[in-house]
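From the methods appendix. Each design record in this collection lists the tokenized structure first, followed by the designed amino acid sequence. Records were kept in a plain field format so they could be parsed without special tools. The example shown here is representative of the layout used throughout.

RECORD:
FOLD TOKENS (458 positions):
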């Protein structure tokens, strides 16, 4: 199945935005804020904006030179992404991830509501911590088969998976592909504020469970209530096409959990940043290979393959940062911030935070890459947060909601379209299922942001 909405490749969109940023240096007045050092990062001084009357627009060559400059400025996060990709591939090569997910589906496969709850929770936690999404694709057929055996349809199966990872991405506790880049741009400590995101994950996961389970109950009671009742059933068997959980898998799982705990401790107690985090994941890769008895060659090939799979993500990060380079070199980013902040300031901090959420939701249609979107929008949103009285932590939360929740909806999300294609669910039928839940997420997310502003989340 292919989406009827044809959107250019994300790289095309980003390069177009670089060109538009360059044109903005001709169309917009140049200006800048004064900045001061606060909590190890520079913030704008409210009311300090002034126009630069003798500043010239950028040369057309800047469109090209900005790209390598963008890669240079984003090198730390790019290298970190490559290491994460390699580590995840080695973990997959051990069979641990497949075994854990498969066992979860098998153990609870005879109890529909328990299956929905547990499977959704596994998908949510996996996305919230390790940024998993593509890794779920091999389980589409297994999940569809299990649901079919329990009288449920493919929409229920994909609802379990997509609602699970959507909530996980939106409330990401330590997701290295979304929250870490966004906080890095905003000048915040990596994974700071995780306690709040974990706290809100539970009720939002509950909303997802209720939405999926109610739909599943209707389908079990009346097959004609299925959104795909008139279509040919998807192929899929409940047969276990995944490895059985072994002692080696349990050891690897324990190592991974311990590594995540060490990561949180290192960040909170010793100020670890991307360099230390990358070293820790590299260490996890080496120890995992030893425990799982993977040969050096097998480990190296898996690591390289995992890094290769994130090459596009790395490119998007570099090109996205190039947009910021052009806007900064052309002295128009502060002009944009000044203009948008002037509008949002009229609403006050609470409504400004909600507006940020909806702006990020719109941006996710054009930039479905979480890391890429962080580097496009957070350089603008972080200083706007300073000017409107919204903490940068809340601005990052608005980014996460806009990026993560709308991943369940936008047709530019390649993972979503791939999953729907395997399950043979037309995109228009999926919209009928997911839009009511998205409305709930937009409302619930707005309420959460209001709470975050009221308690002064930082």
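DESIGN:
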């Amino acid at each position: 199945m292919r989406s009827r909405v044809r959107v250019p490749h994300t790289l095309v969109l980003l390069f177009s935005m670089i060109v538009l940023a360059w044109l903005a240096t001709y169309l917009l007045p140049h200006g800048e804020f004064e900045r001061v050092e606060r909590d190890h990062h520079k913030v704008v001084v409210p009311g300090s904006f002034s126009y630069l009357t003798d500043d010239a627009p950028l040369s057309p060559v800047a469109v090209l030179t900005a790209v390598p400059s963008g890669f240079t400025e984003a090198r730390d996060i790019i290298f970190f992404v490559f290491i994460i990709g390699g580590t995840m591939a080695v973990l997959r090569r051990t069979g641990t991830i497949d075994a854990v997910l498969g066992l979860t589906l098998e153990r609870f496969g005879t109890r529909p509501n328990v299956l929905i709850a547990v499977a959704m929770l596994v998908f949510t936690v996996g996305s919230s911590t390790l940024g998993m999404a593509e890794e779920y694709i091999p389980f589409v057929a297994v999940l569809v088969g299990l649901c079919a055996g329990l009288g449920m349809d493919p929409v229920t199966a994909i609802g379990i998976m997509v609602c699970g990872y959507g909530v996980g991405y939106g409330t990401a506790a330590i997701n290295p592909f979304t929250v870490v880049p966004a906080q890095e741009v905003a000048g915040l400590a990596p994974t700071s504020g995780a306690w709040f995101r974990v706290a809100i994950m539970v009720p939002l996961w509950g909303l997802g469970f209720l939405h999926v389970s109610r739909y599943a109950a209707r389908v079990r009671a009346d097959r004609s209530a299925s959104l795909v009742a008139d279509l040919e059933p998807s192929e899929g068997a409940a047969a276990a096409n995944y490895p059985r959980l072994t002692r080696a898998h349990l050891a690897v799982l324990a190592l991974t959990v311990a590594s995540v705990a060490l990561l949180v401790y290192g960040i909170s107690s010793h100020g670890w940043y991307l360099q230390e985090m990358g070293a820790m994941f590299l260490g996890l890769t080496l120890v995992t290979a030893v425990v799982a008895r993977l040969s050096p060659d097998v480990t190296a090939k898996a690591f390289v393959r995992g890094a290769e799979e994130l090459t596009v993500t790395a490119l998007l990060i570099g090109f996205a940062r190039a947009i910021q380079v052009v806007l900064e070199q052309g002295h128009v980013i502060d002009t944009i911030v000044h203009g948008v902040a002037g509008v949002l300031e009229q609403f006050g901090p609470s409504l400004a935070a909600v507006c940020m959420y909806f702006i990020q939701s719109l941006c996710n249609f054009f930039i479905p890459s979480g890391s890429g979107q962080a580097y496009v929008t957070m350089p603008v949103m972080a200083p706007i947060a300073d000017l409107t009285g919204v903490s940068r932590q809340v601005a990052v939360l608005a980014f996460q909601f806009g990026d993560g929740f709308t991943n369940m909806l936008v047709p530019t999300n390649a993972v979503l379209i791939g999953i729907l294609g395997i399950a043979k669910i037309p995109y228009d039928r999926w919209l009928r299922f997911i839009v009511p839940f998205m409305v709930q997420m937009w409302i619930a997310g707005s309420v959460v942001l209001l709470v975050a502003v009221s308690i002064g989340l930082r």
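APPENDIX NOTE: The chain is about 70% helix and 5% strand.
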